[in-house]
Design goal:
With 159 residues, the chain is mainly β. It has 1 helix and 8 strands, in the order H-E-E-E-E-E-E-E-E. It has an 8-stranded antiparallel barrel. Strand 6 and strand 7 (137-144) form a beta hairpin. The two termini are 42 Å apart.
Length: 159
């Protein structure tokens, strides 16, 4: 009986550090920026030319400014750039579905995004990064203000 209690106790002691490590293996970080589109380029225009169609690909580059004080810089300070590549999956009169890939360059590294977005719901998953954002996972929320300006919130989980 004492031997089985020791074995069970030993197994529990081995399991506890693994569970504790699993729960605290990451930190969270929220980054809020204002995105000002600088350019948009049509990379691929599938027939019929000149209209939005399945398979069309666009590339957009934006300048990013702090929406709040962060990165040791004040609100409004330019802190980076992003490049979004959007490939249309489907387009109807009411809804645009697209495959999105993006690279966001900020102080300390880059954040990579990839996923599918619907025009009315732009929350593209964070799938990685470099530097301070290496191994990042999380979500992106894009709130469109005008055709060229958006508030973007990155909610990161970092290892």
């Amino acid at each position: 009986m004492r031997c089985s209690a020791l074995i069970i106790g030993g197994v529990l002691l081995l399991a506890l550090p693994a569970q504790a490590a699993h729960r605290s293996d990451f930190e969270t970080q929220t980054i809020r920026v204002v995105s000002n589109r600088l350019s948009t380029r049509l990379v691929l225009d599938r027939p019929p030319k000149g209209s939005v169609n399945k398979g069309d690909t666009l590339s957009a580059t934006s300048r990013l400014s702090n929406a709040v004080n962060q990165f040791g810089r004040p609100k409004g300070a330019v802190v980076g750039t992003d490049v979004w590549v959007t490939t249309v999956i489907s387009f109807t009169a009411n809804t645009l579905r697209a495959k999105i890939r993006a690279t966001v360059t900020l102080p300390g590294g880059t954040i990579r995004l990839a996923g599918t977005a619907v025009e009315t719901k732009l929350d593209v998953p964070i799938v990685g990064g470099t530097g301070a954002f290496a191994g990042a996972r999380g979500t992106t929320d894009v709130s469109i203000r005008t055709d060229d300006v958006a508030l973007v919130t990155y909610r990161l989980r970092l290892p």
